[in-house]
């Protein structure tokens, strides 16, 4: 973790740790002076100003709400009353989509307000405790260096003072460590809110504003799955990348792809086509893909162009076959395949194309299993060239394979080991996982108990929960972020502790 | 013909409402931005300050995209209304001319 993320706090914590380990009656006075200097300033942050910011976000949320209502009325009632026809339908669709994204703004602003208030409360508590500890340390200094008000060291009080000073230093370490955890938690919450600004990402990538707004509002609705949890058809990163990839195409190819987008039979179809654009496919591949999905209903698109039903916790299957690992050593492989399929609908289609034409359910299920197992074998071979396959996949092997897909994902992955006994490392890892997932990048995790044992993949985040794909059961599960931070993921992810994360650069 | 029915004046009026809503939203964003843009330092540690700025910037742009779409809707409806006015005006002239011919 970069020390400049936390300013001087990592240095202060290092020095406090050193002071604690060197503390004894002989070094007492010098240690107290040194620690008083180190903790002269409280953890940074301004609780009062944070509360003002929170109030401003909430106030804006309240003001946006009636605007969203008015836009909704324009789209649902007023415009259809006065204008009929194809152009009117398109205009109404844009107005309705605008009402939806404007209507989502108050929730995002209130979420920001809650995160700012929580940070204010934590910093205020840290300031209070810092003040008390600072005073206690100053009192200890007075006790160590004065007897009866005279500046004479008291040799009989030294042992008690050493113990008292040690407690104060431990308290300071706790306060500064909590300040780092608070900052990481707030960072994750801010990233969550930022990740919901999908239309802006589309516009920044080069999409037209109306297009971006309509696509930003497009959700993946799977009957019976979840509660609309992190279920955007296009992730924030894909919204931005689709426009960038279009811009990067030769003019003739770009014109043809725009034509294909214009011919899409529905917004859902167009969203998947743009997802394929974001995944970096050529004009010819997009042409064939567009023909394959033309006119397909949303249910067909969702079940063929992803391997995960988004929207919440669910058993994940395709054509009756579970999307899971087939032996004890392919959890990493399965996580990689699912991660790639989340980025690339043409890749996902390889597993499902044409299955509906098979005569019965058993054949469809068996054929999906055959294709999925074959890909698991191929990926497992590719990620374990030297490393024994019976030992699973290494974190660096996972990162290397993810990087082979960087043309699809647009990001570079690195593996990072996490010392799960170090709260600061776990907190920093959680912050970076949440930030990546909020942009729409899946993050494989290596989890275990005493030793690393299993891979799972974080595929969503909302509020205080992560959505994790667990390959041994082939299901998506909700995991509280606090379970990640506290090493208690066992109930949902099979093992308690996060031991490595495979993270994209941000 | 129900499929192509249009009340030109009403369409323009709906467009004007979209413009007004864009203005309202712009005003809300201006006040919110003034109150929150420079607030990142209150977050304390650099990592949180940077994340706050990223969140703020993302939503400034997001609301900007909403405003832009409302303005585009406004312009489009205004143009649609004007076009139908023109078409209807031409039709009226043609019918008037036809009526004159018959006299």
Question: What would you note in describing this structure?
Answer:
- Chain A has 506 residues and is an alpha+beta fold.
- Chain A has 3 domains: 1-194; 223-305, no CATH class; 406-504, Cathepsin B, Chain A (Alpha-Beta Complex).
- Helix content of chain A is 62%, strand content 9%.
- Chain A contains 20 helices and 9 strands.
- Chain A has helices at 9-22, 28-38, 47-82, 86-145, 158-194, 198-205, 209-216, 236-248, 251-263, 267-278, 283-293, 298-305, 331-343, 345-352, 361-383, 395-404, 406-409, 423-439, 481-485, 490-493; strands at 314-315, 317-318, 321-322, 413-417, 443-448, 452-462, 465-470, 475-480, 497-504.
- In chain A, the strands form 2 sheets. Chain A has a 7-stranded antiparallel beta sheet with strand order 1-8-7-6-5-9-4, with helices on both faces. In chain A, strands 2-3 form a two-stranded antiparallel sheet.
- In chain A, a hairpin with a 2-residue loop joins β2 and β3 (321-322).
- The radius of gyration of chain A is 27 Å and the shape is globular.
- Chain A starts with 8 loop residues before the first helix and ends with a strand.
- Chain B has 103 residues and is mostly helical.
- Chain B has a single domain, classed as Helix Hairpins, CATH 1.10.287.
- Chain B has 2 helices and no strands.
- In chain B, α1 runs antiparallel to α2 (46-102).
- The longest helix of chain B is centred in the C-terminal third of the chain and has 57 residues, at 46-102.
- The chains are: A alpha+beta (506), B mainly alpha (103).
- The interface between A and B is large, with 70 and 51 residues.
């Amino acid at each position: 973790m970069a020390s400049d993320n936390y300013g001087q706090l990592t240095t202060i914590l290092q020095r406090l740790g050193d002071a604690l380990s060197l503390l004894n009656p002989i070094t007492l006075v010098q240690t107290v002076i040194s620690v008083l200097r180190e903790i002269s300033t409280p953890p940074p942050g301004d609780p009062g100003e944070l509360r003002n910011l929170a109030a401003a976000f909430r106030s804006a949320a309240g003001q946006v709400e009636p605007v969203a209502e008015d836009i909704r009325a324009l789209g649902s009632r007023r415009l259809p009353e006065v204008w009929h026809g194809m152009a009117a339908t398109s205009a109404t669709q844009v107005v309705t989509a605008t009402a939806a994204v404007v209507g989502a703004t108050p929730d995002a602003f209130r979420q920001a307000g809650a995160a700012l208030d929580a940070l204010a409360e934590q910093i205020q508590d840290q300031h209070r405790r810092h003040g008390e500890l600072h005073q206690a340390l100053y009192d200890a200094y007075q006790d160590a260096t004065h007897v009866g008000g005279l500046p004479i060291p008291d040799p009989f009080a030294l042992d008690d003072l050493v113990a008292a000073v040690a407690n104060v230093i431990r308290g300071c370490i706790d306060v500064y460590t909590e300040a780092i955890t608070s900052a990481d938690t707030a960072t994750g919450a801010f990233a969550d809110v930022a990740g919901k600004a999908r239309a802006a990402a589309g516009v920044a990538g080069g999409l037209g504003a109306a297009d971006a707004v309509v696509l930003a509002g497009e959700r993946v609705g799977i009957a019976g799955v979840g509660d609309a949890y992190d279920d955007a058809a296009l992730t924030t990163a894909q919204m931005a990348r689709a426009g960038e990839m279009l811009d990067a195409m030769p003019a003739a190819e770009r014109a043809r792809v725009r034509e294909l987008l214009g011919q899409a039979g529905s917004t859902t179809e167009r969203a998947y086509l743009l997802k394929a654009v974001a995944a970096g496919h050529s004009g010819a591949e997009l042409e064939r893909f567009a023909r394959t999905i033309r006119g397909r209903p949303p249910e067909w698109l969702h079940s063929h162009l992803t391997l995960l039903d988004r929207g919440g916790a669910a058993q994940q299957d395709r054509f009756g076959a579970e999307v899971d690992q087939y032996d004890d050593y392919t959890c990493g492989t399965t996580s990689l395949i699912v991660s790639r399929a989340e980025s690339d609908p043409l890749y996902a289609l390889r597993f499902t194309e044409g299955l509906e034409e098979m005569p019965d359910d058993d054949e469809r299920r068996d054929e999906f299993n055959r294709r999925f197992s074959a890909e698991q074998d191929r990926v497992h071979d590719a990620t374990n060239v030297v490393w024994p396959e019976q030992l699973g996949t290494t974190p660096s092997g996972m990162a290397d394979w993810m990087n082979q897909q960087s043309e699809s994902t647009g990001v570079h992955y690195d593996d990072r080991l996490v010392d799960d006994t170090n709260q600061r490392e776990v907190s920093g890892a959680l912050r970076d996982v949440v930030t990546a997932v909020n942009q729409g990048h899946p993050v494989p995790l290596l989890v275990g108990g005493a030793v690393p044992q299993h891979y799972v993949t974080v595929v969503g985040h909302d509020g205080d929960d992560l959505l994790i794909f667990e390959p041994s059961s082939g299901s998506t599960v909700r995991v509280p972020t606090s379970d990640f931070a506290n090493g208690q993921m066992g109930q949902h992810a099979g093992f308690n502790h996060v031991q490595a994360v495979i993270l994209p650069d941000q | 013909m129900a499929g192509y029915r249009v009340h030109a004046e009403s369409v323009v009026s709906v467009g004007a409402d979209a413009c007004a809503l864009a203005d309202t939203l712009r005003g809300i964003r201006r006040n919110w931005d003034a109150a929150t843009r420079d607030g990142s330092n209150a977050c304390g540690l650099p990592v949180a300050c940077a994340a706050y700025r990223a969140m703020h910037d993302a939503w400034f742009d997001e609301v900007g995209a909403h405003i832009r779409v409302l303005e585009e809707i406004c312009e489009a409806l205004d143009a649609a209304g004007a076009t139908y006015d023109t078409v209807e005006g031409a039709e009226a002239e043609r019918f008037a001319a036809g009526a004159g011919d018959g006299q």
